[in-house]
Design goal:
The complex is a heterodimer. Chain A is an alpha/beta fold. Chain A is 34% helix and 25% strand. In chain A, the strands form 2 sheets. In chain A, strands 6-7-8-3-9-10 form a 6-stranded mixed sheet, sandwiched between helices. Chain A has a 4-stranded antiparallel sheet with strand order 2-1-4-5. The longest helix of chain B is centred in the last third of the chain and has 38 residues. The chains are: A alpha/beta, B mainly alpha. At the A-B interface, strand 6 and helix 2 of A face helix 9 and helix 10 of B.
Chain lengths: 261, 272
């Protein structure tokens, strides 16, 4: 029997606060097949980042199940890669040393030169060749985010978690990075979970978009994005894309309570 | 961030001649010359006698007369200060780590530390001197330590407790241990704050050393030399001691600056 890569079923979770428990997730169901790419959208503060922590094993849900490869997640696993809105570069390390960081933790058997080759290969893949020896402070926000992406996949994780990684970038840089993401996924296959506020981003990158309701979040709607092979930005301006965006926008309004289902 | 002089010209310039004519070298030298000239002028224009205020021109004679003592006592003051400072770094780092990682310990220890720091150390000096009577070195080091560990503990605890959670998560998600996270991320990230506090601690430690040396009978170190100048109304000697202390302070400060360049140079951004 084959299992889906990620299966989240009936997850409920509440944070403890001084004024009592604050429920953030209430009936969350998400399934991601191996090699799939799911985007999660929803009103701000609805618990999307909590979802990433559950998948990464940094948190345990109060109720429900989080399974990876058919096994219950009980703690952090080294086969996860993460990138955040904040690129979280270690400023005392050069770019290539930043990219190599996960290898120092999980691939201790790999020789230094192999680690370097691997990091250089990824830097080239995302268009940062020649920047390995620079300090993070010498790079632009978009370049730092590219380096952060390299660090997230350097140890060949089977699951890549992206928590609004392009949220703080300007529109053009963001579109550049969307295309880089497709290139990376072709060369370095992974199963992806993308948290985003950008509906265009969700349909451009993912093959499935999950809309969450307002907090406490449950799965409100799931949209399948038809697989049309290699995508470029033109695909965002087709009637099919416009229709998907309309559906998603309507669902977000429903989630915010501004429109009836 | 504390003031760090621009020493770039030295590292990139290369030759000694170039450094001697560089702004980084000339600016402080000129400032010192102006200061000494003003001092001399003030004493001269007010016609102050030696027993009111010594002038810079009195100092060379004082240094020449007591040079042997200056070297001997200067060394005593220096090593006691450095040992006190090293203790302050060890204890300060330890306390800072405890308070930085544990909310409970932070709540528990902060009032105690603030209260301890608020006590003027001049009042602690006689207590310590009576408590460990005759143990000059120990007493002096103890006061130097007590006066200087506080800024280090506070800065390290703030550096650690304000570490963004993402920094922890990138390693925690890979199953790294708390020790690895501290070693690879928390510690290096706190180094700039640590060195900022160390610069404050250096001068504080000197004050502590001298407090003890001046108060303690039959003391040693530059403080005792100052005290004997006072007893003998040798005002040029007293001022010569003050200048010697200032020079030791400057030397130690720049040692810290050099260490900062090596270990936390990455945090120094050239403007523009």
């Amino acid at each position: 029997m084959t299992f889906p890569m990620i299966k989240i079923e009936g997850v409920r979770h509440a944070y403890k606060t001084p004024s009592g428990p604050l429920p953030v997730l209430d009936g969350l169901d998400v399934t991601v097949e191996e090699g799939g790419f799911v985007a999660v959208v929803g009103p701000s503060g609805c618990g999307k980042s909590t979802l990433t922590k559950l998948v990464a094993g940094l948190m345990k849900p109060d109720q429900g199940m989080v399974m990876v490869h058919g096994e219950k997640v009980t703690g952090p696993r080294s086969t996860v890669g993460m990138a955040f809105q904040n690129p979280v570069m270690l400023e005392w390390r050069t770019i290539i040393e930043n990219v190599m960081l996960p290898l120092e933790i999980v691939s201790t058997k790999m020789s230094k030169s192999e680690q370097k080759d691997r990091a250089n290969y990824l830097l080239e893949l995302v268009g940062l060749e020649g920047f390995g020896d620079k300090r993070p402070s010498e790079l632009s926000g978009g370049m730092r985010q590219r380096a952060s992406l390299c660090r997230a996949i350097v140890h060949k994780p089977d699951i890549l978690i992206l928590d609004e990684p392009f949220g703080a970038l300007d529109a053009f840089t963001r579109e550049d990075l969307w295309q880089t993401m497709h290139k990376v996924k072709d060369e370095e296959p992974f199963t992806g979970v993308l948290i985003t506020h950008d509906l265009r981003e969700s349909i451009f990158l993912a093959d499935q978009v999950v809309v969450l309701s307002q907090r406490p979040a449950r799965t409100q709607y799931v949209l399948d994005v038809p697989n049309i092979g290699p995508r470029d930005l033109d695909h965002l301006y087709t009637p099919e894309a416009a229709e998907m965006l309309n559906i998603l926008r309507h669902q977000i309004e429903v989630a915010q309570g501004r429109a009836a289902a | 961030m504390a003031y760090v002089p621009d020493m770039k010209t030295r590292s990139t310039g290369g030759s000694v001649a170039k450094f001697l004519t560089s702004r980084a070298f000339l600016a402080p030298i000129i400032a010192m010359i102006v200061f000494v000239a003003l001092w001399e002028f003030l004493v001269w224009v007010n016609n102050w006698p030696d027993y009111v205020m010594a002038s810079p021109s009195d100092l060379p004679a004082a240094y020449a007369e007591y040079w042997g003592l200056f070297v001997k006592y200067g060394w005593q003051t220096l090593w006691r200060t450095v040992v006190g400072l090293v203790l302050a770094v060890i204890v300060g780092l330890f306390l800072g780590m405890i308070m930085g990682f544990s909310r409970l310990m932070r709540d528990a220890l902060y009032p105690l530390l603030v209260g301890f720091n608020a006590i003027p150390k001049a009042t602690v000096v006689p207590i310590v001197a009576l408590l460990f009577v005759g143990a000059h070195d120990f007493n002096t080091i103890l006061i130097a330590f007590m006066i200087s560990f506080f800024p280090i503990a506070v800065s390290v605890s703030i550096g650690l407790s304000t570490l963004e959670p993402e920094y922890r998560d990138i390693l925690r998600a890979l199953g790294a241990s708390q020790g690895t996270i501290f070693w690879k991320i928390a510690l290096p990230k706190t180094l700039p704050e640590f060195f900022g506090a160390l610069k404050v601690a250096v001068t504080l430690a000197f004050i502590g050393t001298n407090l003890m040396e001046i108060v303690s009978p039959h003391g040693r170190g530059l403080g005792a030399l100052f005290d004997s100048g006072k007893t003998n109304s040798d005002y040029p000697l007293m001022f010569a001691v003050l200048i010697a202390l200032a020079i030791l302070g400057i030397v130690l400060y720049y040692v810290v600056v050099a260490l900062e360049k090596i270990f936390a140079g990455w945090a120094d951004r050239q403007p523009g």
